[in-house]
Amino acid sequence: MMLSPEYETMSRPELAVLQSRSLRSLVERVYARVPFYRRKMEAAGVTPSSITDIRDITLLPFTTKDEMREVYPYGLLAADAKDIVEIHTSSGTTGKPVVDAYTQKDIDIWSETMGRTLSMAGATREDIVQNAYGYGLFTGGLGVHYGARRIGAMVIPISGGNTKRQLAVMQDFGSTILSCTPSYSLYMAEVAREEKIDFSKIKLRAGAFGAEPWSESMRLEIQEKLHLKAYDIYGLTEIIGPGVSAECECQNRLHVFEDHFYPEIINPATLEPVAEGEAGELVITTITKEGTPVIRYRTRDITFFDRSPCPCGRTSVRMNRLLGRTDDMLIIRGVNVFPSQIEEVLLRHDGIEPHYELHIERKDNLDSLEVHVEVGEALFSDEVKKIEKTEREIEKELREALLIHALVKLVEPKTIARSEGKAKRIIDKRKL
Ligand code: DLL
C-alpha cells in the first residue's frame, strides 16, 4: 500500500531538486532565527549563500545530543512560540531531556510519514490499530496515533501496559494491527499462552515494532508466536519520533522518508562520509521541519545504506536494521561487542526464550561478560546435564561470533524482568 506515490516513487533527480530547495530554506530560517545554529555556522565559516545544492550539506556543522541538551528547553526553536502546537521530549534518564516542538505543519509531516509507515505494513482505513506504545511525552504513542488517523484507520489508544487488558481488547475489538516495542509483543505472547489465548484465532495480521533493537531471529519468533507479519519501524525524538524510516512489504531494510529527513552515514571517529554501502553512524537533517529543526544530527545509531532498487517500487534509500549504537557498543577486553550479535546467537537455540541480560563486570582490571538467558519450560524440566550442555554450546558459539569468552547461565523461566516499553538488557557494573 502506498500512501503518497508521488513522493515515494519520485525519481532521484527530482528528489534531489526537492531536497536542495528544502535545505536552502531550512538554512536561511535557522541562520536568521536560531542563535545556536548561527553561531555554529559562523564558526564553520558557512552562510546561507554557501548552500545551494543538497550535496553542500557536508559544509554544515554536526549537531550532537549534548549540544541540544545545553540549550534546553527552547534554544532550538526556529518558529514563533505561538505557532508551536505540541511538544514531546526524550526520557531524560541520562541528563536533561531533548525537546521536540512541533508546528501544525510538523504534525502534518509526522502524520504523513507515520501514515506511510503503517501503509507499508499493509494498513488501510479498514484496519483497527491497537497502539500499545506509551502515550505522553514519549513520541511512540502519538506518532502511531497520528499515522493511523492520517490513513483513516481506527485507532485504539490503549498505550503500554496492562497486558491482560491488551489481550482482551484485541479479541473484543478485533484489532488487526499491533504497535509496540518488539520485546513487549513477545511478553504479550507469553501472557496469552498462560491465559490459554490462541493468537491464531486473533485477527492481528501485522505489527509495527520499533523503539529498541531487535534481530531477524526475534522477528521470526514474533511472527510465529503472534501469527502476524512483523515490520521494523525507526525514529527518534530528536528528529520527530517514529516515522523516520520503515520497512515495506518486502521486509528487507527500512525506507528512509528522504523528502523530509536527509540521511548520511559517517565514520564516527573521522566524521567523514563512509564509502558507499559501509556501516557507520547515521546522521539526519530534518529538511522540512519548522519547530525544532535539526541539522546533521549525530544519532549514534549504526547502520549502512542499500541503494539497490526495492521491488516495492519506492525509490528511497534503505537503511539496514540497526547494527547497534556507538554508545551501547560494549568494549569488553578491548573487543567491540554489540548486544545484537549476542541476541542473534541466543535465539538460534531451541528451548531458549528471547529474554536475556548481559552483565559486565571488571575484576582486577579484567572485564567479564555473563549472559543470563531464560530457558523455556520444556528445557527447564530436562536434566541438569542437558542444560549445562546447552550453556557450553552457546558459549562456544559466542566465542566464535564475538572472539571473546562469555559465561552463559541459563536461568529459570520468568526470572528476567519483563518490560512494557523498551527492554533494559545491559547491566554494566563497570560504570558504577
Ligand atoms: O524510540 C521513537 C520510536 C517510537 C521509534 C516508536 C519507533 C517506534 P527515542 O525514545 O528518542 O525515540 O529513542 C530513539 O531508539 O536512536 C535507536 O537507538 C532506538 N530505536 C528506535 N527505533 C529502533 C528500531 C523512539 N526500529 C532511539 N530498531 C534510536 C532499533 C531503534 N533501535
Give the N-to-C terminal Cα separation: 48 Å
Strand order, biggest sheet?
4-3-5-6-7-8-9-14-13
The CATH architecture of the largest domain would be 3-Layer(aba) Sandwich
Instruction: Name the poorly predicted regions.
Output: none
The total tally of domains equals 2
Report the helical percentage: 25-40%
Number-wise, the strands total 21
The overall average pLDDT, rounded, is: 94
* CATH superfamily label of the largest domain: ANL, N-terminal domain
Specify the biggest β-sheet: 9 strands, mixed
Annotated CATH topology of the largest domain: Rossmann fold
Bound molecules: 5'-O-[hydroxy(phenylacetyl)phosphoryl]adenosine
CATH top level label of the largest domain = Alpha Beta
Per the principal axes of the C-alpha atoms, what is the gross shape?
globular
Class by alpha and beta content: alpha/beta
Describe what you observe in this structure.
Helices cover 31% and strands 25% of the residues. A hairpin with a 4-residue loop joins β7 (229-236) and β8 (241-247). It starts with a helix and ends with a strand. The chain has two domains: 1-327, ANL, N-terminal domain (Rossmann fold, 3-Layer(aba) Sandwich); 330-428, 2-Layer Sandwich (GMP Synthetase, Chain A, domain 3), CATH 3.30.300.30. It has helices spanning 5-8, 12-33, 35-43, 65-70, 104-120, 139-150, 163-173, 182-194, 216-226, 339-346, 377-380, 384-402; strands at 84-89, 99-103, 128-131, 154-156, 177-180, 206-210, 229-236, 241-247, 254-256, 261-266, 280-286, 297-303, 305-306, 318-319, 324-325, 330-332, 335-337, 352-363, 366-375, 407-411, 426-428. With 432 residues, the protein is of the alpha/beta class. The chain binds 5'-O-[hydroxy(phenylacetyl)phosphoryl]adenosine. 5'-O-[hydroxy(phenylacetyl)phosphoryl]adenosine binds at residues 90, 133, 139-140, 210-213, 232-237, 241-242, 299, 301, 322, 325.
